[in-house]
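Interim report to the steering committee. The following record documents the input for Membrane protein (409 residues).
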Amino acid sequence: MINHAGEADGDGDEVVPAAEQGRFRLLRMRARDPEEVGRTATPLELFFDLVFVVAVSIAAVNLHHALTDAHVVEGLLAYGAIFFGIWWAWMNFTWFATSFGTDDWLYRVLTFVQMGGVLVLAAGIKPMFEEGDATVLILSYVVMRVAMVAQWLRAARSGGEGGLAAKHYAIGIGAAQVLWLLSLLLPDGLTPIAFVLLIGVELAVPILAERRGSTPWHPHHITERFGLFSLILLGESLLASANAVVEALETVQELGPLLWIAVLALAVTCALWWIYFWPPHHRVINGYASSLVYGYTHFFVFAAAGALSAGIEVEIDVLTGESKLDPLAASFTVTVPIAIFVLGIWWIALRHQADRVVNIAVPAGAVLVLLDPILPFPVAVTAIILALVVAVLVVRAPLEAHEHGRMVG
């Protein structure tokens, strides 16, 4: 954060001289130094994450209800569409902040607007799941993205490669929002097609903008931001699972299976945390293409982390007799998110920094987890498999930086 004298206050933000404050006490938005020493997540960014996780939590709750009512396909499609809006708004702000964050009052206000937008989006999650009504979702999403356009327009005034890219980001995002609003006029039957096409448009904006210019990113800062959001998602999933266990205590006749699920949910979540944070993530975004792979693949990692609690709750519903899914299908609601999470992290962060043993053990563990539901003790075997994967990671350290460079090159 930057104080009024233009001095850094110790939270890792760039020092900007007070003389650079323009009219209305605004700072000139300049491209940040990608090698800036001590760059860390700010309190505003952490606050931003917590608000976005509220929407993820509500989406996971509604996914749980859809799955336990055996509306599997409809529930997964709704969850995927909703999670895209949450993830894309979060990721765009995160990459913008690592490139141009100023933390002046307008930057903060526009960030708060995005936070308000995601809270409104959360109110539209239930209608989307139950009625397929995306009106509130689209309107709230557009609010968040318009705030982001204002940020990019500020950055465009900085000039240079970064300013040129920022201008094209603003144009692309703005055009996409017009298309989202026009999609509200389409017949209901065309809404899914419009969603797919407009998601493609949104994903294309960074690719096209970065071809016209270049925005800097700070490897340590950006990977810390992704790691913190993953951490919060895993914590939220564990909290939701714990709450489901507490509620089920009143109706379950035999406590043994329920307590076993609770212990194993904790073990699985801890193992996923271990796997995610085993490699130094900043080493894997050493170029434009690798940064895109890292950011885009995190959609599946984040979505899987958010969906894990829904799977645990479905398993608990099976025990209490409240689920319309058979036990085999219910087990897949737990093992599929786990396998996606593990494979996603292996693909973007582990495989380039691991030896052959780890590169066999981790994906093999994910595949075995997928086979878990056909075994006699589903969740228990999942926990054992993940514990064995963690044991391999304990024994095998990540490759040194110079070895990593040879592998990626």
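The CA atoms of residues 238 and 265 lie 7 Å apart. The committee is asked to note this result when reviewing the revised timeline.
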